[in-house]
Amino acid sequence: MTGPGRRRATRAVVALPVTVVARGLVRLPPARLRQVLDAAAAGTRPAGYQQTLAAMEAVTAVSRTCRDPSGCLPRAVATALLCRVLGRWPTWRTGVRTAGSFAAHAWVEADGLAVGESFPPDAYQPVITVRSRPRQRDGERDAVGSR
């Protein structure tokens, strides 16, 4: 099996263990969670919208916690990690509501769009963002220098 069929099978097999890992990771303090996700995003290319949506659908299919409306943090972490299994990374974000009563939320974005979300684009102000970070070729340096 190759191509899309193989990716679907991989998502289905890996979705449950990824959600278990995600549920453990969300217990970390925010700064440590960011470090772990930043390390996971290293060496990845950006995930596309459809790939990210398929990953989200896979994790919500196997996890009641991720399916629950209040399960945004484990759902976003698990979705990003499942994309990582295939070498891609969506933009992972946490943020706070911009108007009305205080609310925090976690979500993933791909192709500039929030994936699987119904809120308007400006409803939340991002506080933590983890983007894909493709491997650099020999001799290349990022804008802040080598790490």
Task: Summarize the model shown.
The chain has helices spanning 4-25, 30-41, 49-62, 64-67, 72-85, and strands spanning 45-46, 88-89, 91-97, 104-110, 113-114, 124-130.
Salient structural properties:
147 residues; four-stranded antiparallel β-sheet; alpha+beta; 5 helices; McjB-like; McjB_C
| Secondary structure category | alpha+beta
Beta-strand residue fraction: 15-25%
Report helical residue fraction: 40-55%
Distance linking N and C termini: 39 Å
Strands, total number:
6
InterPro entries: McjB-like (IPR053521), McjB_C (IPR032708)
Organism: Parafrankia colletiae
Domain Microcin J25-processing protein McjB C-terminal: 18-128
Protein name: Microcin J25-processing protein McjB C-terminal domain-containing protein
Write the layout of secondary structure elements.
Layout (H helix, E strand, L loop, with lengths): L3 H22 L4 H12 L3 E2 L2 H14 L1 H4 L4 H14 L2 E2 L1 E7 L6 E7 L2 E2 L9 E7 L17
Helix pairs in contact: 1-3, 1-5, 3-5
Organism: Parafrankia colletiae
Pfam families: Transglut_core3 (PF13471)
Protein name: Microcin J25-processing protein McjB C-terminal domain-containing protein
Tell me about this structure:
The protein has 147 residues and is an alpha+beta fold. The protein has one domain. It contains five helices and six strands, in the order ααβαααβββββ. It has helices at residues 4-25, 30-41, 49-62, 64-67, 72-85, and strands spanning 45-46, 88-89, 91-97, 104-110, 113-114, 124-130. It has a four-stranded antiparallel sheet with strand order 5-4-3-6. A two-stranded parallel sheet has the order 1-2. A hairpin with a 6-residue loop joins strand 3 and strand 4. Helix 1 packs across helix 5 (72-85). The longest helix has 22 residues, at 4-25. The radius of gyration is 15 Å and the shape is globular. The mean pLDDT is 90. It holds the Pfam family Transglut_core3. It comes from Parafrankia colletiae. This is Microcin J25-processing protein McjB C-terminal domain-containing protein. Residues 18-128 form the Microcin J25-processing protein McjB C-terminal domain.
